[in-house]
Amino acid sequence: MMNKVMILVIDGCAPEYITPEFAPNIHRLAEQFGFSKTVMAVVPTVTNVNHASILSGKFPSETGMAGNYYYNPVTGEEGFIEEKGFMKAETLLQAYRKRGLKTAFLTVKGKLLGVYGHAADIGISVQTPDAPLLQKLGIPAPPGVSSLESSRWVVEAALAVIKKEDPALVYCTTNDFGFHHFGPEAPEAQLQIRQIDEAVAAIHEADPERQIYITADHGMNQKHHLLDFQQLADEAGLHIFCLAPLKDRYKENHVYQEGGILYLFLKKPEEKDTLLELIRSRAEIEAMMTNKEAAEKMHLPLRGIGDYVIFTAPDCAFGELGGTTALVTDASRTHGSLYEQEVPLLAIHPAAPAEAYQYSKDIAAVLFKLLL
Description:
alpha/beta; Alkaline Phosphatase, subunit A; Gyrase A, domain 2; 2 domains; 7-stranded mixed sheet; 4-stranded antiparallel sheet; 16 strands
């Protein structure tokens, strides 16, 4: 059997955050026992979609996960994706459990435990803490979800789990609250990376042979120009539903639910030409694809992505602006677009050479091959 594994997903960690200056231990260990490089996240660059791929080794076309939010054009039902049943592909957690191997899933955001963590033997969430379990493991009560301390807490909790329970697979993910508010140059962001770096060093010291993969679900960029395309379409008399794949309950991270991609559900096919003309008229919109084009080019599932998929230009995002069509702001750091696809991958004792990893999902793709 291969060595035990830990996958650490630093939520929203663009490569610029995790530098040798602020993560000296991780970079030293990666240089000594593995590699560091940049890889690609899958599209859309949002939390649920990329965790599905990192856990399964598959593209969204196979996981069925197209966003943090769903809309059913037949029934009109819509809502947040926060529970099991949406994920269509087998996860590493399920594969390890089938083989009688112990697994642990640790997260800041409670929704991830609901969507993916049901197959884990040990499940820990900052948002929905299990007090008896934390007491048993000697882990203190967690801080608030929307705090700079939550990411440090969850990685230190992973250390405690490894020391006391020694799971064959540990999947641990932080919160992007800090990176939504602070760029790589900010002391607050640098401190968060230093704290994670120290915890990873302690995990390696506690279990020197464990494979450790450090990556991100998506990057993060400043956006100055926000566009409310639903408002724009409504004012033009169009009958469409705009689904923002990034949309979730964590509005402290993105006040306007702003993100770089929208799925457009056209309720009246005869309005197609007017819709396309409106899309082409906006400089904020850089690319448009039909659902079939998006499914083919972006490896997306046909179901759930509407009739058209639109992407923003680098400095722009779609948002829910409350009655206005456009807004210029200095207060938005977000993701979801094609420009947040580049993410770091630092590996300690990796299961394959660096060239085997082109996407973050390839961590699981390689591990699945070893489980066969």
